[in-house]
Amino acid sequence: AAGTITMGASATTAILLFGSAYGATPNCLVVPQNAFTTTNIAYTTTTTRISLTQNSTSGNLINYFCTGTTS
């Protein structure tokens, strides 16, 4: 799975559900499109989703690429 996630306008969590579940937790690369000066981005993955959390700022664009085997 690959694409771009647009974060919300404040401290928030964005959850992206994968179209198909992975057989095991996938390896994901998460890269911001803009330079972060006042915020931190954290993320976790499961076999069905990727969750991103930011502590401030708005509208950050986050590119992601996940790879693994589907179930």
Gyration radius over CA? 12 Å
Please describe the biggest sheet, giving its number of strands, its sense, and whether it closes into a barrel. 3 strands, antiparallel
Strands side by side in the biggest sheet: 1-6-3
The low-confidence parts are none
Helix content estimate? under 10%
Helix-strand string: EEEEEE
| DSSP, total strands | 6
- Beta percentage is over 45%
The DSSP helix count reads 0
Distance between the termini: 14 Å
Class from secondary-structure proportions: mainly beta
Fold and architecture overview:
By secondary structure, the chain is mostly beta strands. The chain is 0% helix and 49% strand. The protein has no helices and six strands. It has a three-stranded antiparallel β-sheet, with no helix packed on it. The radius of gyration is 12 Å and the shape is elongated. The model has no long low-confidence stretch (mean pLDDT 87).
Write a short abstract of this structure.
0% of the residues lie in helices and 49% in strands. With 71 residues, the chain is mostly beta strands.
